[in-house]
Amino acid sequence: MDQRYATNPTEIPGLTTQGLRDKFLVEDLFVPGEARTVYTHHDRIVLGGVLPAGEPVALPNPDELRAEYFLQRREVGIVNVGSTGTVTADGETYELPNCAVLYIGSGTRDVSFSGEGAAFYLFSAPAHTSYPTVLTLPGEGNTLELGDQVTSNRRSLEQVVHANGVQSCQVVMGVTRLHDGSMWNTMPAHTHDRRTECYLYFDLDADARVLHLCGEPTETRHLVVADRQAIISPSWSVHSGVGTSSYAFVWAMAGENQDFTDMDAVPPTEIR
Ligand SMILES: O=C[C@H](O)[C@@H](O)CC(=O)C(=O)O
Ligand SMILES: [Zn+2]
């Protein structure tokens, strides 16, 4: 499993473009027939991508976890960003159409993924207890309409795993989709020093990119992100982006609290 050790903000000014990408961009999560995982030491989140081919693909148990099985001390939120597929968890099979979210609680031993064309994105965090496994179909979460056409940031944000929705130990998760003609997400930008957040950008044209802003609010950099690539945003970093075409993204957080509104907005005039 790819290990990404935690980064201190004082390291940012010395990084090259490639150095920045090596720390915060996850480029190759989706490989046909494989389950790929990346362990970030920021809040000990594991990101994963599963692209089943002909055969079902099992959730691996990477040696770095030193666990009997992946979910022994962890929970996971799964979003299907591809075509319909199925996830089997301890003998129960769930059908996930595009953008369905499956939360699986800790203690679940056997998890496997099937369906050619399905693309399962995984966000996992340590869990102190077991919450029930819940499937949420697209539209069943709590949808917030944000932004404005005038500022090119009209978007629908669906909260699925959150304080008033599907229960979890740490994971807070949902999907945001930009409306046609809107390109900016999460502007004004924000930080939340109590949680790490990751974005998986998807439904981006093959030749389009998102310019994702990261870094401390007064020392920002950018990552150029392609379809089905993920970014890791440490607690001290802003996370906002502008696309060269329309797109959607899975956002997911873990850390000290699950309070979605616990964020410190950064006015555009203060960003450097
Ligand atoms: O802390 C919350 C996260 O950054 C996202 O939910 C923001 C987002 O999806 C958006 O503004 O479109
Ligand atoms: Zn955020």
What does this protein structure show overall?
By secondary structure, the chain is mainly beta. It has a single domain, classed as Jelly Rolls, CATH 2.60.120. It is 3% helix and 44% strand. The chain is built from one helix and 24 strands. The strands form five sheets. Strands 1-3-4-11-6-9-12 form a seven-stranded mixed beta sheet, with helices on one face. Strands 2-21-18-23-15-14-13 form a seven-stranded antiparallel beta sheet. A four-stranded antiparallel beta sheet has the order 5-10-7-8, with no helix packed on it. The longest helix is centred in the first third of the chain and has 8 residues, at 17-24. It binds 4-deoxy-L-threo-hex-5-ulosuronic acid (D54) and zinc ion. 4-deoxy-L-threo-hex-5-ulosuronic acid binds next to strand 14. It is an enzyme of class 5 (isomerase). One of its GO terms (molecular function) is 4-deoxy-L-threo-5-hexosulose-uronate ketol-isomerase activity. Belongs to the KduI family. Zn(2+) binds at residues 190, 192, 197, 239. Its EC number is 5.3.1.17.
